[in-house]
Amino acid sequence: MPSNKRTSWGKASLGLKATAVGALVFLNFPVLVIFLYAFTTESAAFTFPPPGLTTEWFVKIFDRPDFWRALGLSFQVALIATTIAIVLGSLIALASYRRSFFGREVLSLVVVLPIALPGIVTGIALRSSISLLGVDFSIWTLVIGHATFCIVTVYNNVIARLRRLANSQIEASMDLGATSLQTFRYVILPNIATALLAGGFLAFALSFDEVIVTTFTAGQQQTLPIWIFSQLLRRVTAP
Amino acid sequence: MTALQPSPSAPPRSFLHRVGSYFYAHPNLTLALMLLLPVVWLVVVYLGSISAMMVQSFFYIDDFSGRIVREFSLDTYQELFTPSNIDIVLRTVGMAAAVTVVSALIAFPLAYYMARYASYRVRGLLFLGVMLPLWSSYIVRVYAWKLILADEGIVTWFFNVLGAGGILDAILAIPAIGGRSLSFSFLGMFIVFVYIWLPFMILPINAALERVPKSLIEASGDLGAKPRATFMNVILPLAFPGVIAGSIFTFSLTLGDYIIPQVIGNSSYFIGGVVYVHYGTSGNIPLAAAFTVVPIVIMIGYLLIARRLGAFNAL
Predict the structure, then answer these.
(1) Which pTM value belongs to this model?
(2) I need a surface site. Which of A85, B4, B114, B283 has the fewest CB within 10 A?
(3) What part of A 97-156 touches B (C-beta under 8 Å)?
(4) Domain around A47
(5) Domain identity same for A177 and A228
(6) Is residue B53 classed exposed, middle or buried when 0-12, 13-18 and 19+ CB atoms within 10 A define those classes?
(7) Taking the alpha carbons of A10, A14, A15, A19 in that order, is the dihedral positive or negative?
(8) Which of A112, A116, A225 minimises the CB distance to B139?
């Protein structure tokens, strides 16, 4: 939205400003704490102010192969899950934004379900079928879980963009003799590209940071959040 | 579709063109092909799993052998509706509702400021400020709060520096929400829940506020409405779907989380924790499955209401 639209909005009241600033401080203060404690010399205590500062933790983490394995696994899972989510999410969005068909309303609900239902529900449900079917835990069981709740972020971004996309553009393209594929390639795709990117980024971030579904679909594997959790439970290494 | 039909005399130019035209002429086939993969994924993999789990909730544990009996029975549901389990459900739902309301109250002013008053550059900075916490790990943020709220942590230190340690002790002495220290209390858990899910409330509200047409606000002003009236009668109703959309996230995420109650807070159970324990430790899969039916029912009801309120377009 262009900035010049905002000139005649008037001034914000002091109370509004203060609340906004307060909310921002609330949001970012713990991030600061994380940074501070990444350098603390004390590994097990919660004391504030921290007794001393050091960079040795960063050296330590560098030497831990299990950390790098977990990071690598998280990255792979997030990448594959995001790709699947982009394909499936945009297919649903493209199929359902103008056409109405039997079950469309249900479909729009089902897309949202994996993220609207608590993660533990999705996690246990998938775990149940994994054990029922006798599938071994692998990176693919993780990917299935992650892609399922990532579809919705892509779908939402793309469908919101498609609703704003003027129909006349598509019609003009068709009238000028473009094939459906050409229309998709040269008209629709450039228009939804940034929405795909935004949805993809969100999906990647969601997947990378997910703990609960991951716990149930991972078996013995450790993604980064699970690794951090296990380290924190053992209290051997500070953030 | 309202596009013109391709003229019948147009000569087919290439294979791709013919393929494209074919699909264009058979929209239902195109639709079916497009939806095949996503529907298989969502319905077979996802809904299939959910149903498989719900079926398990009708099995029961044999009291003598302790093994799962795969026969239809309502025994497990009988077990679910014992007073202590109902307590857990009510506690979880109450927490989720409180977190949702307070998140909305904190998120709205910030989103409103971002959408209406902030200049282009400030808005970018504010966005960054909202997104920044999301870039660090959820678990690390929860533990950061442990550091902040712990007995020797920052909050206590801060109160002591101000010479107001007594106030903190007084808050902690309140029976229902207090506890040994902030990091072992309901209040602490509540603060962390609000903190963790707050961005998921800010973003949809902000998106909804951004979409309020400026012309409507001007029209309202031109017709003589005071700013307050404009806010109450124009902006708030139009932004409300955004609030509902955000509430879906805050409510459901609180409903199922078992990590925050495990790290922060006393040992009282929430739905997520109970499910986790029954599933993992005690192996009572039917009861775990029956417990997950509770949030499923709550959330489907919530979603149907939310959709009626137009929240799905604001997600």
Answers:
(1) 0.79
(2) B4
(3) 98-99, 101, 107-122, 124-129, 132, 144, 147-148, 151-152, 156
(4) 12-54
(5) yes
(6) buried
(7) positive
(8) A225
